[in-house]
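--- STAGE predict ---
source: upstream dedup step, 1 unique chain passed
mode: sequence only
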Amino acid sequence: MVVSIHQPDYISYLGYFYKISRSDVFIFLDNCQFSNDNMHHWNRIKTPQGACRLKIPVVQHLGDSILDVQTRDALGWKEKHLKTLQMNYSRARYFDDFFPRFRELLLTSYPNLAEMNIAINTEIARRFGFGATLLRASALPVETVREARVIDLVKAVGGDTYISGHGAKAYQVDAHFAAQGVELVYTDYAPITYPQLWPAVGFLPYMSTLDYIFNCGFDWDGVERAIAAQKGTA
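--- STAGE serialize ---
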């Protein structure tokens, strides 16, 4: 059984969903420490001026987990994000196919940042047609940290293969996974090109997955074809 794990990021990029597409089980690491640097509360979209960061104002304290962090909804950030998306993507081919549903999800009240991101990412994964079971780390009986936590989470759901992001190479050791009966593999995703608005800006990789969805719809086969062509296996 193939397992992948990632923090519940805000409207994440295609590589995030690529890991889900390759997994039997995907675990939202909702009880890890919140980081201002990581994309737990921000992401990028494309505009006529280039990349634009959509950032969520939050209430958090040093050491808080993502489950402890609340969004500051009284500041009207949700309406601002929706307006920015509408201004920059209303002419996109598939904008009307998903924007109303995204608006509904975003304007829902959530107890914390993690729950909001999980709701949005779960809907996107469902619309792409992925068959992975989506779980929360906070619902599993695992209390270890760092590499040991990853191994224990994989084992807790019966996994024997773990797909990791490359950033974790700094602290993961293949032999530690193998000793626990888990094969460690790293994602082979690399940014693909696809039709975007504002061609004069040039193609911008690593935009939020909303950029792909609004321009190309939920055409995951198109993502797979682009990745295969990139690898020379099409």
